[in-house]
Design brief:
The chain is built from 18 helices and no strands. With 445 residues, the chain is mainly alpha-helical. Helix 12 runs parallel beside helix 17 (361-391) and helix 17 packs antiparallel against helix 18. It is globular and about 60 Å long.
């Protein structure tokens, strides 16, 4: 069942556009994350001690996450005023151009301090772009469909590990072709330069999707009275704060599993290709895990799935580093596959639908983007804090404890939130009368 004014063709196009757009955006964004763990400390911070260089590299990674709420505000404002589609085309274009320019940057040895400065500026540009991408892409799917909204919205979430798979595969292939020395000189640049080709493919698909029927209906019946941000802060502050809390722990875990663990595993002696292969495998599992647990959220609700993932991650955080410290390649795979592909996917998968169900149509882009992107700062500061902890002599138990604490913060926010599965996205205030559980035999909207 689709929204009035929508069609099965447009639903399929919207889901495909959201998925491919997310793949491309996260290919670019997470390519930087992987490169910051394996190469940027030697290319852009070569004049620093290796440990300090790693911390500095993760610091530039964090700037992108701090820029994401700014992007969420900018794209959310105009996305709620003039439509989702236009903002998504713009966000994809900014990301593709920014990533291509990173591939052309001179190194620290060539232009000195200007190299990391330009790197940071382009990382901020990436952060602004992806700050507007996720929520808009989720809304394109969620607002085109009513039945199985959790599943359709999760294709945007599945784009993140898909982008990780693509970025790590391309990075690993370039490393194999160029060799260790060549990779540091030119091999790392190729994946970034490929962004321009991915941009062309993504724009071709995205331009074929129509504006969502939910937004068209809302735009035709009422004029926005005040800026969407003010509406969110005035009328929905509780949902905004809970959305930040629910997502924060998930992003800390994501940053740990996809960035910090790479650097840590290499430092304890694992070959870089073996670590990248383990990350690739875990990302493949995460694609299907995201879709599966989101499907379950359409049957059992968003809260049970998210709660199970958050509690599971608070426990898995203490198993993660002992498995890596074992030195076993198999246990390394177990650590990241179970962590990212199962536990984190259970938590992260239903978030797309959940966030879209927390705000009314004319503030939905702003509210969901702001909540999601502020929470996303956790993925940026997590690796930075953990690297600093280890550099200062702290152990992995302290790192695990911080991760678990963030997870339990999210658990508290989940308990404070009512079930959103049955809300109608056309309602002026979707959560005002949301039932705590879906009535027997009712259809998910």
């Amino acid at each position: 069942m689709t929204q009035p004014g929508s069609s099965g063709t447009q639903l399929r196009r919207a889901v495909l556009s959201s998925y491919l757009g997310s793949v491309i955006e996260y290919y670019d964004f997470l390519l930087y994350a992987t490169a910051s763990a394996v190469v940027f400390n030697e290319v852009f911070f070569s004049n620093l001690d290796p440990v300090v260089g790693t911390v500095a590299s993760f610091g530039t990674l964090a700037t992108g996450y701090f820029a994401r709420p700014i992007g969420g505000l900018l794209f959310g404002h105009f996305g709620d005023r003039i439509g989702r589609k236009k903002m998504l085309v713009l966000s994809m274009s900014i990301m593709g151009v920014g990533s291509t320019l990173i591939g052309l940057l001179p190194t620290n040895d060539q232009i000195g301090a200007w190299a990391p400065i330009l790197l940071i500026l382009l990382r901020v540009l990436q952060g602004v772009a992806i700050g507007g991408e996720w929520s808009g892409a989720v809304l394109m799917s969620a607002e085109h469909a009513t039945s199985r909204r959790g599943l359709w919205a999760s294709f945007t979430g599945a784009g993140a590990p898909s982008g990780m798979v693509l970025s790590t595969l391309v990075l690993a292939l370039c490393a194999a072709i160029s060799g260790e020395e060549g990779f540091l000189v030119w091999g790392w640049r190729i994946p970034f330069l490929l962004s321009i080709a991915l941009l062309a493919v993504g724009l071709f698909v995205r331009l074929r999707v129509t504006e969502t029927p939910v937004f068209r209906e809302a735009a035709a019946t009422a004029e926005p009275s005040r800026p969407p941000l003010l509406e969110v802060l005035r009328n929905h502050p509780r949902n905004l704060l809970l959305s930040i809390g629910i997502g924060f722990g998930a992003f800390v875990a994501q940053g740990t599993l996809t960035v910090f663990v790479i650097s840590y595993a290499v430092q304890v002696g694992f070959p870089r290709p073996e670590v990248l292969n383990a990350l690739t495998l875990s990302s493949v599992v995460a694609i299907f895990g995201t879709l599966f647990f989101s499907h379950l959220s359409d049957r059992f609700g968003r809260r049970p799935m998210v709660l199970a993932g958050a509690l599971g991650m608070s426990i898995w955080a203490f198993a993660l580093f002992p498995l890596i410290d074992s030195g076993s390649g198999f246990l390394l795979i177990v650590a990241v596959v179970v962590g990212q592909g199962v536990v984190h996917a259970c938590w992260y998968g239903p978030l797309g639908a959940l966030y879209s169900e927390l705000f009314p149509t004319r503030t939905r882009y702003t509210g969901s983007a702001l909540g999601y992107q502020i929470a996303g700062i956790g993925a940026g500061i997590g690796p930075l804090i953990f690297a600093a902890l280890l550099a200062g002599g702290g152990g992995t138990i302290a790192v695990s404890a911080v991760i678990a604490g963030c997870c339990l913060l999210s658990v508290a926010c989940i308990f404070a939130l009512r079930e959103t599965m049955s809300v109608d996205l056309n309602d002026d205030d979707p959560t005002a009368a949301a039932p705590s559980r879906r009535p027997e035999g009712s259809a998910t909207r």
